[in-house]
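Quick question: what would this complex look like in 3D?
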Amino acid sequence: MSFEPVLLRNRGVPDVQRLEVYQQRGGYRALEKALRMSPAEVVQVVKDSGLRGRGGAGFPCGVKWTFLPKDHSGPIYLCVNADESEPGTFNNRILMEEDPHQVLEGITISAYATRATTAYIYLRYEYGRCYRTMQRAVDEAYAAGLLGRNILGRSDFHLDVYLHRGAGAYICGEETGLIESLEGKRAWPRIKPPFPAVEGAFRKPTIVNNVETLACVTHILDRGADWFKSIGVPPDPNNPRDLGSYGPKLYCISGHVNNPCCVELPLGVTARQLIEEHGGGVWKGRKAKAVVPGGISMGFLSESELDTPLDFIGPTKVGCLGLGTAAVIVIDDQTSMVDVLYNSCRFFRHESCGQCTPCREGTEWMTKILARIRRGQGELSDLDQLLEIANGIGITPGTTICGLADGAAWPVKNALTKFRAEFEEYIRHHGRHHDQR
Amino acid sequence: MAILTEAMRERIRAYLPRYPSKQAVVLPALHVVQDELRCVPLEAVREIAEMLDLHPAQVQDTLSFYGFFRDEKHPLGRKRVWVCRSLSCMLRGGEELLRDLSARLGVKPGETTPDGRITLEFAECLGQCEGAPCLMIDDEVHGPLTTEQALELLKRAEEAS
């Protein structure tokens, strides 16, 4: 399958981080085009494109923008979610490090469309290189009249862009956790409604969009909604809840493959294609046992499910939570799923913000039970106990404010459904002499 | 005696025009202080609160939520090294890298070498999964690395600063 990259088209071009080089390659053409349209027309183009959020939830971007109150006196804020922290995910880092102006152009177009006058790029602290690269790009854009007052000579368009560095907390990727953190507080997600579009940062209407989503906006304006819709997978006519999976997507491939990488492909590529055609196959001549389809919180595909298309709906058909961040992690057949699941549970225990008791305690209990199993002190009844906890935490059963607990629960549910025999075997055969890690 | 120098106050004040609320400057201010002092002493919390018209408890509440900040009893070494332990790194030797660095530096994750040179930490996913196993020195991520390569890199980072 041959596909000409769009989001990564400038990857490896010398000095493309510099404004001048970016412009020589057609950069900021989309912004000029957008400014010849009305904000409402730009929103309509993005809506028509079917662009869905790339951060994990897959909410239609243009529809989100229409939730802003009409004729609001302002200010309206745009928060750029650059808190990328989902295990296995690094596509936003690549976009910001390699082509910062593409991201900035998407931010500027989106601010114009939403009438936002300030954009905060909430950047995870760990992305120090992104911070310095993006800050240089922002400074260049101000100097060139592409940010600040009267952008491109338009007396009615002003935008300030600020980078805001986080401090190492996964929950800040949740859009209302991000807003709380931006406001200088602990990143406890808010109960919705009100949704941020109505009452967000500093109690003003706010749009939170992922970095890759905003980079897509640049190209949708440049090439049109029809171009975007010509890529990817249209909705299943028999499924009224399928909104389609249009456009290019950055897939991350990591774990047990020969060539871990980030690759841009039309939405709907299968996990097997990613592993074989782009990841160089499973390492050491081994076979895949399990594959994470879109960041650890989405659960696991078994080997027999690797032909599942990784579009917004595909992973749900085999019991996974969704496409998530489209970060594929390959686990070979020599790896213990008990170790993998322990790693996943430990992550969510560490990252639970502690606000909702079912999540705070549930992630702790699941981690403790798995630690006990790994110590050789597990019992078969522990597996049902794990499932009972997993089924009780999250917005799926309705016991938590945000989806972190769903993300903690899904790997447990999938592992204990798809790999139950391995867990039972492990419990039966591991005595007290087992390696105590 | 004031713990925030005038230079630090100046850096913190420079953030104020960016936000419609003073409280939004809490995280930037905490970063400024920890950058300079390698920890955020309680007196600094009080002074930040005063600068931002907050109760010290509000600043302390934010500080304590993010595992990133250190109090004066647990200051950082001159270099802070974070070794990723999340899944993509674990599958390619991240836990072994953390264990070996811990043994070679003679400290457990979270601790600082007695000479004050290096603080070792575990990290959750650092977002460099194509370069697993990876680690971060201050705010730059490197990988994939063997233990020897990691120690060499650390040595060079110490020399460079």
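Answer marked as accepted. The first helix of chain A runs from residue 19 to 24.
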